[in-house]
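Quick one: structure for this chain?
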Amino acid sequence: MTELERRAVLAMWSFQGVGAVGLSSLETLVPKAEWFRLPLRELVALADLKSDAREIVLACGSLEAQLASVEATMKDTDQRVCFAGDREYPSRLVGVRGGPPLLFYSGPGAIVQPRARVAIVGTRHPAPDWAGWTVGFARACVEQGLVVASGAAEGIDTAAHRGALMARGVTWAFVASGLDEIDAAPLKIVTPLLKAGGTVFSEYPPGVRAKEGLFVQRNRLISGSADVVVVVRGKEDSGARHTAEAARKQQRPLLAVPGNPLELGSEVCRTLLRSGARPCFDVGDVLSAAGLVEMAAAPEQVEEKGPVSDESRAVFEALPRGIFDMELAVAAVPEKSSGAVAAALMELELASWVVTRSGRRYEKRE
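Got it. Here's what it folds into:
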């Protein structure tokens, strides 16, 4: 696309409700380079739009005004846009049915050329040991040169991102809102992810708040950006199931982690394994599904402590010696809220001041 065409697509896409269908219908009737020359009422009459989307478009004075507005918001909120085929746009998404023509992103984008990309997804409420397992599994994936993609949700998604960050690897988060409207829960991992050089992607323009239907729609991007998709835990109706269904439609190798059949949260993995998903026990299974050979493990090194904020340093000083859980951590710092202690622990963990133990427990590095 020419620069003029890219700007025209960005302007139309940034209207909430236009989406791929509306954009495609307009493209078949009017060359993109001509969009700025037509009044919005004529563009709306040609595009296949729902009534609420028509009202949103017509409420704007002109396509040029919409473009100026979205570009100003992007600048103010430190986000950029990449189009299918750009080096910042995940290459595996190019050509995927239903893939967006552009993505908004913060961070460097998909400029790293990895051995492969693995999507790790699962429930927001895993048993403690499964969160710890996912952290270690994501670390192992990064150590084998893989990019870890997930959805920045609490639980398994956050554990996958954390594991990648702890191994100083590359991780991508796909969110179900505009990048300027990320909710508090995903923001807990998005903030350190961006600080560590990761990337957050969204197909949704600025101003879009997350809602139920957008999570399902977003999940096809997580699977579509990956070479292999791994489901760790989840109930039958969980978002992980939707990601798995998208992976099958996109012909991505689908793996599921076996577990205790009596354990709550193992339902979706049992169903996927029965229907042909490959079992995943460790990173070797991911590499096999991607057609790669396992690299020799690098010599284990003691990671140096990174910089932390004064607030997190104060929490670290108050934490007890030995292994402790969140309850003990909160009790050790009574002047702070449990949310503030949890945020400090995440910062300390990513900076190697604290190490994670099984069962959502921690230990200080003196």
